[in-house]
TrEMBL record:
GO BP annotations, alphabetical order: transcription by RNA polymerase II
Organism in which the protein naturally occurs: Pan troglodytes (Chimpanzee)
Name of the protein in its database record: RNA polymerase II associated protein 1
Record-linked InterPro entries: RPAP1/Rba50, TPR_RPAP1/MINIYO-like
Domain of life: Eukaryota
Amino acid sequence: MALALLSRLLPGSEYLTHELLLSCVFRLEFLPERTSGGPEAADFSDQLSLGSSRVPRCGQGTLLAQACQDLPSIRNCYLTHCSPARASLLASQALHRGELQRVPTLLLPMPMEPLLPTDWPFLPLIRLYHRASDTPSGLSPTDTMGTAMRVLQWVLVLESWRPQALWAVPPAARLARLMCVFLVDSELFRESPVQHLVAALLAQLCQPQVLPNLNLDCPLPGLTSFPDLYANFLDHFEAVSFGDHLFGALVLLPLQRRFSVTLRLALFGEHVGALRALSLPLTQLPVSLECYTVPPEDNLALLQLYFRTLVTGALRSRWCPVLYAVAVAHVNSFIFSQDPQSSDEVKAARRSMLQKTWLLADEGLRQHLLHYKLPNSTLPEGFELYSQLPPLRQHYLQRLTSTVLQNGVSET
């Protein structure tokens, strides 16, 4: 009840907001899961989901138990960042106590919006991010670490035991808030407690019942543009990540095929250098590899970028296994597509790309692009290969490459 009420109180109720934060929301008595097997159940759930979840688990039960112990510090953090201004608080307190002589006016402010936003559990983290953006010299590491830790702990408690408190915050907005942890500075995300908490929250977002609701193409509260945030995220990843796997997992998550091609073009068109640092193993990919390979890519500009990074060696399996498998899958699908509805430009690009693939000096890449069969993240390359091309593909290849010596290879 306190959680539901907190994001609905209007201006004039500053005193009630403060009292809820001070006395109700963070009380251990209101978290009976703490003593009724909640942490143990979380650990057991981790063990059961090891076969289906690809996100490394880090003892969610232990993290929840520690969060319960740290509730006083969590409460202090939210009192610092979410309490109303003192003048408004005193006026509201006097009004609720009937001390009218201390009330400057009996007219309440126009109720434009609640005192706290629906995503108030993330509010200290959002303010930390904006302060960091406005302070080139950087923030105090102690304050930064403490605030981020308390927010992540509280959000994990809500995600695990009070998910209805976050129903008003779309999964995409939660992902954007997690990304802010990495944008605060160049060191915060390296701290072990932060890594464990972010990994646990990422696992929550990648659950089968949550992932389909992750929609990055719709407007998000408090965010002008997810592509702009993602471009900033890529800049920071390229500059400071040094191949951090958790950072890489968050970079890869928005690149799923169902999301806007703008995000994939941002990486392959403007941040190719980041590919060298995206060393996340296939076995640690947050979601199924098929989320990236199905359906086949239909954006010609992106397909040409995939092909270019492969043939120039900017994208290799040994340092970027996930996107190597993705690029090979889409290029293979494109060069063997025989859609009669394709435009002349697409047909010419397809023919040129197949001819260039056939002439590749890199025999390994040539074999992968021509003989790709289907994704399989249990294999080192991330996909299975045909031992021999199917007859239709073999015939198509022979027909298109028979004119290479006569006509040359056109530019892709």
